[in-house]
């Protein structure tokens, strides 16, 4: 990590936002403009000022603004300043004379302009501000210096995660481990992504998204392994053995979970949007390194800490009372039993709740946010509003109609006569290319502006008899939204299909991956419903300090669905792997679902709470795209963990019964063997069984008060999980199961209205008397 950090710091960054949309009209317009104006790559920002009384042309205003613009023009890194007080800038004054603007063109792109230079421009310009004269600045470079300090959102997320971990573990060392692993994984991932930015196009939002997903999965993966390790120590294993067991169980689940996240992220590649390629590289690399840290560095740290991974109180209790019994009790066990008793009601309530949240998704509109969506207190938002006030709403997103050769007078006339067009200005031709600036009467994010672009392309330009293309930021945004929407079904089908195949191989079941795919779609619909209600309808935006409502960023569905499907699969893997582990040992679906939910719901909910804290912290990032992704993913993870995985999934699995684990025999033979759980122990060989005589285990099934339990299922299983005998207790609670030969077996007992028990029993030459006590609300586990 230190080597990567040194190399990355030495090399610096070379992030590039490449919005390449082949075969689109805006891309054709961009190519022609690049041919005509090859030297206009620098970022152009705007200084806007407004007077309360009089005109911006008044001598007093001129004397205050002109020296400021001259000082900015002399700064190293500023290419040119176009002033409204020069002959070529006469049109940069509003009709009523109260608002004017100057254009500041830097010699580099916005992400390459030094922040010190931008801050100097900002401070110099706002130095002219006084009573009656308002000065604001807008543009991409200006927006960068408004962002909070780098690392603020990550730091807040880590602090929130540390609080949750300490409350869950009660141990400083146990709290520190998941955070250390996540920071290590994210750090190495960001350094590697920074180096890769010199060899491939990586957008500047990629490291932010990589931090967001890396912190979430890194803490979660370490949390699952540490939880299993602590449980092993509490049940009497020495630290080394507990670490091996945790890595052999939860560690396997982490590998599969990481694989599902990477597969979901790689699904973005099918959209063939170059902007997303760098996002895939940065986020996938960070996830892979987080998985490696959790499965290599973490076990080493667990071995180093030994029993100190437990709190002092837990260590004292372990020394005084001995190992804890294998089982789950408390709220998790009671909830698990409640779901088993009322699966239909639980499933119905969960579905209705998710359906209500999903309703707003029906009005989802993709587009692009701009500085008009910034917080009202920012100078970029104030500059945006001043320009809209002085020059019309469409001034902030002009269209560029680009044509090569030919007569353009008919085209200009047609554009001027088009409803929805405020102003038309044809620039002097260059290299045979003519650019016509078209200012709409509506804002860049308006639906009517989208319709105007369609009207220009479909009617106005063909009627003029010339070949022309509509470009500009607003047109690019519209084309990007259209392309994304068209390719979204293929993308969703790809990530669902790949996730289905992975779960099919992992759990050797057709129903489990089908259930997971359906739940992922439900989670996606509900989380996007929340996103639309907040960012598109504006519910709670002021409370969150996230500016003004607008369309959902066009690239967000692809990125968010990738992360959502990956994280949802994480929880599905952790939940179902524990159920499958119990199913392998007992072949009792009701028991497997109950035990799996009771043992994993608490850790899944803790992990989800940590992710929600991490994701919500990215509201502080200053980037609207990251804020949207953070809020959307926080909602998705909360709904997925607290509603789907702890209510709807187990309820559905109770209703489906043993068919959860059904797989056609022909498919069973063809599938590769990749197990999330450790390999099962072999069943007793024929020679071993022949070496001893048949025997039996018998006794009574009673409650804690000594009352007999009738109809309890008592199952005898081999060490490898093969069912040897199964009976139901009689009216007096008595039972008897046959044992093929002396040895060690597993006796599992479960009753619908009570908890469950599973104990290893050693059977000698004669029958073994073994009474079972069932306690309501307690779930015993097989590990």
TrEMBL record:
The subcellular location is:
Cell membrane
Please give the name of this protein. Integral membrane export protein
Q: How does it sit in the membrane?
A: Multi-pass membrane protein
Checking InterPro entries in the record gives: CarboxyPept-like_regulatory, MMPL_dom, Mycobact_MmpL
Principal localization reads membrane
**Membrane-spanning intervals of the chain:** 156-185, 205-226, 253-273, 279-306, 347-368, 488-507, 514-539, 551-569, 603-620, 626-644
Q: Which family does it belong to?
A: Belongs to the resistance-nodulation-cell division (RND) (TC 2.A.6) family. MmpL subfamily.
> Which keywords does UniProt give here?
Cell membrane, Membrane, Transmembrane, Transmembrane helix
């Amino acid at each position: 990590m230190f080597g990567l950090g040194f190399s990355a710091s030495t090399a610096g960054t070379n992030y590039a936002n490449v919005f390449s949309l082949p075969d689109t009209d805006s891309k054709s317009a961009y190519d022609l403009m690049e041919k005509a104006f090859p030297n206009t790559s620098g970022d152009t920002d705007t200084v806007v000022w407004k007077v309360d009384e009089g005109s911006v042309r008044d001598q007093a205003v001129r004397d205050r603004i002109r020296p400021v613009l001259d000082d900015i023009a002399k700064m190293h890194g500023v290419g040119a300043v176009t002033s409204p007080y020069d002959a070529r800038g006469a049109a940069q004054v509003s009709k009523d004379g109260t608002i004017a603007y100057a254009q500041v063109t830097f010699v580099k792109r916005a992400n390459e302009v030094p922040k010190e230079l931008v801050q100097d421009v900002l401070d110099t310009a706002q130095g002219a501000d006084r009573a009656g004269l308002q000065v604001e600045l807008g543009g991409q470079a200006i927006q960068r210096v408004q962002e909070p300090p780098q690392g603020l959102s990550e730091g807040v997320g880590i602090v929130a995660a540390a609080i949750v971990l300490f409350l869950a573990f009660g141990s400083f060392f146990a709290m520190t481990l998941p955070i250390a692993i996540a920071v290590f994984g994210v750090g190495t991932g960001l350094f590697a992504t920074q180096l890769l930015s010199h060899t491939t196009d990586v957008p500047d939002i990629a490291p932010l998204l990589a931090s967001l997903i890396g912190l979430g999965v890194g803490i979660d993966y370490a949390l699952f392994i540490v939880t299993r390790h602590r449980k092993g120590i509490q049940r009497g294993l020495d630290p080394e053995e507990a670490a091996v067991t945790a890595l052999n169980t939860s560690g396997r689940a982490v590998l599969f979970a990481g694989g599902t996240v990477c597969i979901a992220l790689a699904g973005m590649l099918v959209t063939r949007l170059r902007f997303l390629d760098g996002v895939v590289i940065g986020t996938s690399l960070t996830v892979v390194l987080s998985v490696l840290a959790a499965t290599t560095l973490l076990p080493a740290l667990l071995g180093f800490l030994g029993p100190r991974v437990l709190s002092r109180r837990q260590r004292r209790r372990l020394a005084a009372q001995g190992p804890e019994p294998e089982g789950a009790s408390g709220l998790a066990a009671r909830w698990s039993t409640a779901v088993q008793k009322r699966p239909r009601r639980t499933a119905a309530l969960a579905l209705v709740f998710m359906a209500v949240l999903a309703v707003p998704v029906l009005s989802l509109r993709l587009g692009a946010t701009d500085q008009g969506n910034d917080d009202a207190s920012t100078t970029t938002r104030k500059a945006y509003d001043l320009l809209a006030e002085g020059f019309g709403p469409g001034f902030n997103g002009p269209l560029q109609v680009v044509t090569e050769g030919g007569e353009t007078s008919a085209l200009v006339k047609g554009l001027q006569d088009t409803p929805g067009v405020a102003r038309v200005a044809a620039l002097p031709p260059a290299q045979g290319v003519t650019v016509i600036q078209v200012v709409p009467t509506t804002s860049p994010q308006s639906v009517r502006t989208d319709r105007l672009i369609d009207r220009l392309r479909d009617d106005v330009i063909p009627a003029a008899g010339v070949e022309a293309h509509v470009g500009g930021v607003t047109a690019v945004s519209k084309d990007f939204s259209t392309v994304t929407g068209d390719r979204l079904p293929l993308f969703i089908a790809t990530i669902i299909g790949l996730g289905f195949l992975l779960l099919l191989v992992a759990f050797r079941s057709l129903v489990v991956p089908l259930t997971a795919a359906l739940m992922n779609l439900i989670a996606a619909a509900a989380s996007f419903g929340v996103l639309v209600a907040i960012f598109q309808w504006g519910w709670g935006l002021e409370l969150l300090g996230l500016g003004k409502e607008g369309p959902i960023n066009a690239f967000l569905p692809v990125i968010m669905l990738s992360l959502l499907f990956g994280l949802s699969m994480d929880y599905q893997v952790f939940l179902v792997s524990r159920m499958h582990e119990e199913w392998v040992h007992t072949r009792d679906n009701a028991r497997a679902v109950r035990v799996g939910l009771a043992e994993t719901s608490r850790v899944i909910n803790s992990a989800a709470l940590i992710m929600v804290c991490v994701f919500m912290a990215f509201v502080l990032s200053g980037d609207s795209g990251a804020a949207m992704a953070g809020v959307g993913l926080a909602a998705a993870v909360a709904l997925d963990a607290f509603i789907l995985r702890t209510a709807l999934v187990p309820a559905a699995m109770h209703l489906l019964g043993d068919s959860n684990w059904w797989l056609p025999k022909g498919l069973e033979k063809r599938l590769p063997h990749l197990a999330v759980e450790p390999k099962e122990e072999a069943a007793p060989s024929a020679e071993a069984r022949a070496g001893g005589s048949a025997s039996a285990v018998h006794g009574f099934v009673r409650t804690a008060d000594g009352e007999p339990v009738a109809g309890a299922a008592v199952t005898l299983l081999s060490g490898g999980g093969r069912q040897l005998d199964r009976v139901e207790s009689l009216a007096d609670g008595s039972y008897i199961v046959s044992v093929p030969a002396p040895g060690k077996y597993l006796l599992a007992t479960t009753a619908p209205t009570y908890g469950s028990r599973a104990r290893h029993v050693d059977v000698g030459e004669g029958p073994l008397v073994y009474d079972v006590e069932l306690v309501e609300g307690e779930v015993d586990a097989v590990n």
